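pipeline stage [seq->struct] | target=Enoyl-[acyl-carrier-protein] reductase [NADH] | organism=Aurantimonas manganoxydans | residues=264
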Amino acid sequence: SKGLMTGKRGLVMGVANNRSIAWGIAKAAREAGAELAFTYQGDALRKRVEPLAKELDALVVGHCDVSDAASIDACFKTIEDEWGKLDFLVHAIGFSDKDELTGRYVDTSEANFSKTMLISVYSFTAVAQRAEKLMTDGGSMLTMSYYGAEKVMPNYNVMGVAKAALEASVQYLAVDLGPKNIRVNAISAGPIKTLAASGIGDFRYILKWNEYNAPLRRTVTIDEVGDVGLYFLSDLSRSVTGEIHHADSGYHVVGMKAVDAPDI
Ligand code: NAD
């Protein structure tokens, strides 16, 4: 992939640590020659993200809380001042109260429903609005989804409803931004043990279940998702937009999941 991303500059939102999916994508893009910028959420993550940014010679834009419009504006102002334009955007952000990522969906509160939608769905549109203005030579926007958007997964609950809305918004954004040669896609990744995933009830069980039932008989890594991300961010996928692409060892095609995980 060397040179595939040479001359391209991109903003990566959602690195929390070296297990983040955003980090897997950032590494793949950097290896292919991209120039990167990172945001982080809050001071607690700053000390994790700064050394990671240094590893990839990335610009640290600063704190960005996507539930706060002023904070998003400030980050895009910095990008504009530093780079003047943008070629790609990675949105790997999601949040829901972990007390509602267990038990029944029907018990979801209005407050957490709204917060989950704001941070996990609307924020992609909010950053797309700002990024559009900087993608003067076209561009690629990428977000992260999960199979819980399509089918009911235990404990995923309101997050599944949010991912369904996120996937729909990928299609609407693709249509709106297509005439400017800005492509908008999502990767629907198989389960990976990350900070966000640790909030989901019985996540270990979901991982094992996927491992035993996916056609490839294994779960996916952030480096594997990173390589798929590289395809979407690069010109290799220049004819592709509005796509929800599964990177899940094929799990989503299996109709009859037959094998229970024997060791849990
Ligand atoms: P992660 O915890 O490493 O990343 C989640 C990120 O969201 C963190 O960097 C966090 O700071 C950020 N975030 C949360 N609220 C925010 C806010 N208000 N403002 C700005 N940033 C905020 O976990 P991850 O698994 O790498 O998650 C990245 C994306 O991938 C999420 O959208 C997640 O739903 C999705 N995803 C994860 C899996 C999985 O199994 N891990 C599978 C499919 C999709």
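stage status: PASS
auto-comment: Residues 14-16, 20-22, 41, 45, 64-67, 92-95, 119, 144-146, 189, 191-192, 194-197 surround nicotinamide-adenine-dinucleotide (CB under 6 Å). The first strand starts at residue 9 and ends at 13.
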